[in-house]
């Protein structure tokens, strides 16, 4: 019988708290079990091991990320800024959005569908630029690569020069948008 008060939803909530404090790599079954006050085998009543827990957590994070992007509206610059803010302010959750081996296969259909919605959110913003036919997926990849590269470098302290990082980001996004609209 499952421990009173522990459910799949509660385990995911605990895993999200662990993720927020310890990062993606620190979100282990052991860390979640310790936080829940149970032994690791007790988690298997609620989640399908670490891959299942990662999929469940990533689903919440992808849906949250998509909501942030949608709230930014259909403007590419606003969307890119919102994605960067999310990545910088919630690094563990941002890492969960990026996927991995655990995000593929027959058990990841719900996560794949949610990820496709997020790609569509980005594509919707890009459509306003009047892209050439067939260039949409390339543009989505370019936006994701720019934001991800910037978030990754910023998180690693890679922008040590005194120049304004926000201004640099805005210039990079403006350059990308200009390139996409040629």
Topology:
Blueprint: H1 8-26, H2 29-36, H3 40-43, H4 49-72, H5 76-89, H6 91-97, H7 109-127, H8 136-155, H9 165-180
Helix pairs in contact: 1-2, 1-6, 4-5, 4-6, 4-7, 5-6, 5-8, 5-9, 7-8, 8-9
Keywords:
mainly alpha, Arc Repressor Mutant, subunit A, Tetracycline Repressor, domain 2, 2 domains, 9 helices
Report on this model:
It is a single chain. The chain is 72% helix and 0% strand. The chain has 2 domains: 1-47, Homeodomain-like (Arc Repressor Mutant, subunit A, Orthogonal Bundle), CATH 1.10.10; 54-180, Tetracycline Repressor, domain 2, CATH 1.10.357.10. It has 9 helices and no strands. The chain is an all-alpha fold and 182 residues long. It has helices spanning 8-26, 29-36, 40-43, 49-72, 76-89, 91-97, 109-127, 136-155, 165-180.
What structural class is derived from the secondary structure elements?
Answer: mainly alpha
| Structural domains: how many | 2
Helical content (DSSP H or I, runs of 4+): over 70%
Low-confidence stretches: none
What does the overall shape look like?
A: globular
Task: Name the beta content range.
Answer: under 5%
Termini Cα gap: 62 Å
Element-by-element helix/strand order: HHHHHHHHH
**Compute the gyration radius: what is it?**
18 Å
Top CATH class of the largest domain: Mainly Alpha
Strands, count: 0
CATH topology of the largest domain: Tetracycline Repressor, domain 2
CATH H-level superfamily of the largest domain = Tetracycline Repressor, domain 2
């Amino acid at each position: 019988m499952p421990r009173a008060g522990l459910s799949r939803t509660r385990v995911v909530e605990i895993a999200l708290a662990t993720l927020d404090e310890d990062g993606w790599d620190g979100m282990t079954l052991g860390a979640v079990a310790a936080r829940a006050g149970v032994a690791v085998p007790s988690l298997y009543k609620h989640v399908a091991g670490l891959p299942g827990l990662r999929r469940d957590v990533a689903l919440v994070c992808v849906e949250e990320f998509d909501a942030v992007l949608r709230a930014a509206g259909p403007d590419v610059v606003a969307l890119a800024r919102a994605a960067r803010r999310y990545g910088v302010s919630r690094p563990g959750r941002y890492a969960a959005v990026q996927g991995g081996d655990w995000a593929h296969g027959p058990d990841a259909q719900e996560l794949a569908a949610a990820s496709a919605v997020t790609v569509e959110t980005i594509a919707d913003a890009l459509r306003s630029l009047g892209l050439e036919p067939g260039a949409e997926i390339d543009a989505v990849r370019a936006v994701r690569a720019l934001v991800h590269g910037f978030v990754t470098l910023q998180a690693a302290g890679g922008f040590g020069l005194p120049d304004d990082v926000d201004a640099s980001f805005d210039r990079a996004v403006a350059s990308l948008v200009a390139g996409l609209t040629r």
